[in-house]
Design a protein that fits this description.
Blueprint: E1 2-4, H1 9-19, E2 27-29, H2 42-51, E3 59-62, H3 65-73, E4 77-80, H4 89-92, E5 97-98
Parallel strand pairs: 1-2, 3-4, 4-5
């Protein structure tokens, strides 16, 4: 997995470490590291290139409308988990999954 964020690397590193998630991500693309940063699709494309994933394996978890727009432009299957604001009507029309919580992505074993 990779993190593509509009936050700076020191902030991301601290938050991932505090949450105990550092070892789950092989790659991070952070603010200021690409000529065109998020929400432009270039950071997503860079992360996908680094992860060497097949098209059917490409997923994005996004919280904002701009993130959904540009993850979609990068060819990702998008799951939106809104934080402060729900998706706008035009973003809802993208037809992506909109979930109330990241826990809704986790299915219990049968």
């Amino acid at each position: 997995m990779a993190v593509v964020t509009s936050s700076r690397r020191p902030v991301v590193a601290t938050k991932l470490e505090m949450a105990g998630l550092t070892n789950y991500f092989r790659y991070c693309v952070c603010a200021g590291e690409k000529a065109k940063g998020k929400p432009h699709p270039v950071p997503y494309l860079k992360a996908l290139d680094q992860l060497d994933l097949a098209a059917e394996q490409r997923r994005a978890l996004e919280d904002s409308d701009p993130g959904v727009r540009f993850a979609t432009a990068a060819g990702l299957c998008v799951f939106q988990i809104p934080d402060e604001f729900g998706p706008s009507p035009d973003v809802r029309d993208f037809g992506h999954e909109i979930l109330p919580s990241v826990m809704d992505l986790v299915q219990p074993c049968q």
